[in-house]
């Protein structure tokens, strides 16, 4: 039984068609059919039911396909590790960033990495957490940087917590609330709110802060994955933004945004983490990018405390 034939089995199971599977593995349909028949004969099991409408995996086949996926994963790791032994660099590092890590790290992370490894390419994915977790598990990303509280309980993921970034409310310079001596949470509801798409734990925190009933929607005027767009919007309107000081430190220095001190606001923050596959060895260049991202997130954090447990 060869890894090549196991790859044929997985391809046929996932495509559900000899034609599509043959195209995927770069074989003719007759050659793929012979390969599948050979492994079925070797195992003494029928893995697929053939019909005019396509191919269906049998109950026995489902077990074999799942085991085959594991074998292929380990085989890919073996090949990758062998490459790492032969060279100090791999051709590409693939990074996934959530909205707040992206606005903190970009473009400095890319520039800093390019100076260290000018011959290594970078692939950047900016997306919501669940999409990037799926991409990491599918080995389409080398590591991701997101809030660790959105991560599933999955032993395939290795998580390195970073220092907590405390959150605050921000408005434009000259905002009506900026000059008030005492601002309370109820005052925030008098102004438009802008935000990134909120994960469930942040939904609950904002509901409690603004004293909004659980079944009511948070009154958001603008929702956007790009924090830079949100900051620009807030700089030009009376809208309010909840963000970490680390994600608006340039605007604070330029005095285009100012913090709104809310007296009765609970402490809310983001618990960033670096996330990799537990059984996957990063390339040397990937390790450099990972360490650089962690260092930059900790260094820029204006309200750093110990890592969230």
Describe what this molecule looks like in 3D.
With 309 residues, the chain is of the alpha/beta class. The chain contains 12 helices and 13 strands. The protein has helices at 3-15, 18-25, 29-43, 59-86, 99-105, 108-116, 129-137, 185-188, 200-210, 227-235, 249-254, 284-300, and strands spanning 48-51, 54-57, 92-97, 121-126, 143-147, 157-161, 165-172, 193-195, 220-223, 240-244, 257-260, 269-270, 272-277. The strands form 3 sheets. Strands 7, 8, 9, 10, 11 and 12 form a 6-stranded mixed β-sheet that branches. A 5-stranded mixed β-sheet has the order 4-3-5-13-6, sandwiched between helices. A two-stranded antiparallel ribbon has the order 1-2. A hairpin with a 2-residue loop joins strand 1 and strand 2 (54-57). The longest helix is centred in the first third of the chain and has 28 residues, at 59-86. The protein is elongated and about 80 Å long. The two termini are 46 Å apart. This is DNA-binding transcriptional LysR family regulator. One of its GO terms (molecular function) is DNA-binding transcription factor activity. Belongs to the LysR transcriptional regulatory family.
Short description:
The chain is of the alpha/beta class.
Question: What descriptors fit this protein?
Answer:
about 300 residues, 3 domains, transcription, single chain, Arc Repressor Mutant, subunit A, five-stranded mixed beta sheet, LysR_subst-bd, transcription regulation, D-Maltodextrin-Binding Protein, domain 2, alpha/beta, 13 strands, disordered C terminus, six-stranded mixed beta sheet
């Amino acid at each position: 039984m060869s890894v090549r034939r196991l790859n044929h089995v997985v391809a046929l199971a996932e495509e559900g068609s000899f034609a599509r599977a043959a195209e995927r593995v770069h074989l003719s349909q007759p050659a793929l059919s012979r390969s599948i028949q050979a492994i079925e004969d070797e195992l003494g099991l029928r893995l697929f039911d053939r019909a005019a409408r396509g191919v269906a995996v049998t109950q026995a086949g489902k077990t074999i396909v799942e085991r085959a996926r594991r074998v292929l994963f380990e085989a890919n790791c073996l090949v990758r590790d062998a490459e790492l032994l032969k060279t100090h660099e791999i051709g590409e590092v693939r990074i996934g960033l959530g909205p707040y890590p992206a606005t903190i790290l970009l473009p400095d992370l890319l520039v800093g990495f390019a100076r260290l490894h000018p011959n290594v390419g970078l692939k950047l994915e900016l997306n919501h957490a669940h999409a990037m977790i799926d991409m990491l598990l599918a080995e389409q990303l080398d590591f991701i940087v997101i809030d660790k509280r959105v991560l599933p309980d999955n032993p395939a993921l290795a998580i390195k917590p970073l220092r907590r970034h405390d959150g605050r409310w921000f408005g434009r310079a000259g905002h009506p609330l900026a000059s008030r001596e005492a601002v309370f949470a109820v005052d925030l509801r008098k102004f438009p709110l802008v935000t990134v798409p909120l994960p469930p734990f942040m939904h609950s925190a904002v509901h409690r802060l603004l004293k909004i009933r659980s079944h009511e929607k948070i009154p958001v005027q603008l929702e956007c994955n790009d924090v830079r767009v949100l900051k620009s919007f807030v700089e030009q309107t009376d809208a309010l933004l909840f963000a970490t000081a680390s994600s608006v430190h340039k605007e604070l220095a330029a005095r285009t945004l100012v913090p709104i001190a809310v007296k009765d606001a609970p402490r809310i923050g983001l618990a960033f983490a670096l996330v990799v596959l537990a059984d996957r060895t990063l390339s040397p260049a990937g390790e450099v990018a990972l360490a650089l991202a962690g260092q930059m997130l900790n260094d820029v954090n204006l309200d750093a405390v110990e890592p969230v447990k």
